[in-house]
Task: inverse folding
């Protein structure tokens, strides 16, 4: 193979991260040309050695001291030597895509229902430490394009996505139905957790977002059905609780009335309808008691009947409409 005396990489696109010069047969005095937003790294025996920034460089023992020490080049002349030269693209790449290849199994915290979560978004990165990137990520590869880096780090991103969403579910009790309102928060947590992994490989995370988190349509429909049934149960339970409270207040009133001789409530208790009936009677018992407690004309002192009627209304045992209706009947009987 011919000895190379000029090294340069003119990329036809910007989707590459690193590119290996095709020949490793070099010589002192060769011209190394590094374009803007590039770096050139000499690599030999698994070691990242001398690094060059943008510009034209003539290779001498003075500007490749690490390589010179390793291969023990003689002074002077145009001595040939063998070494790999990697060109590194320092441009920031902000349009890399990520997504879940397979759904992430989780449990929805509000309904306790198993779901499968999918997500996708965008991220950006730039090379911060060329030596670290070439040494750890590239190794024996010929080149390293954006899709290869994206594929490698996508696993890191998805793993941290699983942790972030699970944490939101378990600690914050957030429902899947409100998860898309928290995308910025989730993206921030993933970026903070992932940044260290990128830095270990000499990369700097420049931007990261989560565009959407979703579940399959069939699972979404099942969740909506479960949520609808849950709301119905809660409404029924709430209505039963309200009825039980009304019945309890009715019995409390009867107990107080039993302490006073006479009156409708006292007559009811005298007839055997006491607190021992319990709440098992539910709404019907409360309704019957409420009706029995409304003073019925004719007979009795109208003033006393009106006072009893007002007491029932004040206790909340009859409605305003019932109060007005019975009040009119008492007054009409005069």
Result:
């Amino acid at each position: 193979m011919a000895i190379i005396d000029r090294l340069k990489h003119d990329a036809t696109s910007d989707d590459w991260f690193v590119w290996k010069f095709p020949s490793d047969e070099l010589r002192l005095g060769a011209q190394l040309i590094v374009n803007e937003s590039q770096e050139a790294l000499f690599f030999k025996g698994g070691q990242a050695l001398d690094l060059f920034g943008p510009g034209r460089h003539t290779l001498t023992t003075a500007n490749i001291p690490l390589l010179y020490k390793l291969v023990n080049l003689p002074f002077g002349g145009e001595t040939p030597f063998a070494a790999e030269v990697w060109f590194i693209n320092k441009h920031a790449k902000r349009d890399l895509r990520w997504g879940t290849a397979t759904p992430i199994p989780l449990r929805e915290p509000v309904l306790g229902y198993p779901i499968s979560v999918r997500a996708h978004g965008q991220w950006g990165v730039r090379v911060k430490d060329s030596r670290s990137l070439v040494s750890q990520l590239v190794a024996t590869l010929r080149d390293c394009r954006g899709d290869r880096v994206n594929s490698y780090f996508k696993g890191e991103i998805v793993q941290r996505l699983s942790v972030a969403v699970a944490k939101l579910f378990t600690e914050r009790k957030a429902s899947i139905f409100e998860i898309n309102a928290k995308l910025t928060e989730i993206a921030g947590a993933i970026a903070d957790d992932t940044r260290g992994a990128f830095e270990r490989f000499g990369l700097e995370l420049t931007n990261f977002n989560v565009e959407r988190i979703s579940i399959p349509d069939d699972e979404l429909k099942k969740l909506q059905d479960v949520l609808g049934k849950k709301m119905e149960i809660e409404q029924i339970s709430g209505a039963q609780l309200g009825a039980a409270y009304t019945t309890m207040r009715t019995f409390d009133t009867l107990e107080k009335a039993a302490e006073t001789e006479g009156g409708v409530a006292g007559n009811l208790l005298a007839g055997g309808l006491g607190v021992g009936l319990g709440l098992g009677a539910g709404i019907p018992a409360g309704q019957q008691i409420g009706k029995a407690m409304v003073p019925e004309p004719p007979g009795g002192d109208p003033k006393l009947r009106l006072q009893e009627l007002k007491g029932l209304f004040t206790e909340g045992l009859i409605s305003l409409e019932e109060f007005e209706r019975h009040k009119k009947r008492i007054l009409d009987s005069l």
